[in-house]
Give the backbone structure.
Amino acid sequence: QQQQQQQPNDPWKKVFAPDGRPYYHNVITNETSWTKPAAVPPTPPPKPTPPPSVWKEFKTEEGRSYYYNSETKETSWERPDELGEKKNEGNTNGVDGEGEVKGNGSTDNSGEGKGEKKDGEEDSANKKEEETKKDLSPEEAKELFIASLEDNNVSPDMKWDAVMRMLLSDSRFSAIKRVSERKKVWNEWKPLRRRQIGVELQEKHTKACDDFKTMMMKEPYVFEPNSIEDVDFLLAQHSEYHNVKSKSERRQLFNAVKTEKENALRKQVQDGEGVEEEFQKILDNIPEFDPMLTWNEFLQFLEGVEAYKSNDLFKEYPY
C-alpha cells in the first residue's frame, strides 16, 4: 500500500514501495528518487506593470517639446517627473508622443533643426515671455487669449483638445495661466463668435444681392416682357450673378428690378407730360415770341425768359 504526503507547491511527492521503503516521485517530470531533492524556491511573481502615463509629449511647428495631460487637460513646457529623464535620441524628426510627425523635421548642416532657436535665444525668449505675462491684468490676458483664437481662425465648433494643440505654440494662448480659466473664456467666446459669423454671412449675402441688382439696372435686356429664363445666359456672364447662390432668389431680384425700371419709366412719362403742359403755358405768355425762329435761335431765346429759367422742372428736362 502506497501512502502520499501532499505539500503545497512541491512537485516531489513521498510514496512507498511494496517493501515499505519511502521514495520520491516528481509529478511534473515523472522522475523518481530514493532521497528527496532540495526544494526549488518558487518563481517570484512578475512585477506589476506601471499604468501608462497620462502625460504625452508633442512638438510645436518649431520643434519645441510640450506636454499634455489627457486627464486634467493641462499643458506644460516642463517635462513631468513621471516621464523620467528624456533620452538623448539622435532622431530629431519631431515625432510626438502619439507617433505623429510635427513639422518637416529637416536639419541643417550644423545638425540643428531648421527654424529652431539656440538654447540661449530660446531661454531669453521664454524669460521675456514670462515677464510679459506677469505684467498682464486678467482683462489683458483675456484679450490676448481671444486674439490668438481669432487670428488663427479657430472655429467655435472645434473640440477643446484640438484648440489647445493648435494654439500651444502661440504665446498669447498661455497668457491665461490656469487651464480651467482658459476653457471658461473659450466657452464664453464660442456663442459670441457664432453670432459674429452669422452677422458677417448676412452682410455678405446682402452685398451680393445689392451688387446683382445694380448690375441688372444697367442691362437693357432686364425689362418686360423678358423673364429671367429668357436672359439667364446673358446674366450668367457676370460674377454678380454667381454670387447669389439661390436660383429662386435670383428670380425674385430680377422681377424686382423689372418692376423698379417700369415704375421709373412710368414716372418719367408722367413728368414729361407735365413738362409739355407747363412749357405751353410759358409760350402762350410770351407776346414777342416769333414762331419763325430756328431751333437753335429758339433755345437762345429761352435763355432770356425768366419763367423758363426759374422753373426747376425744365432743369430736369431742359429740351
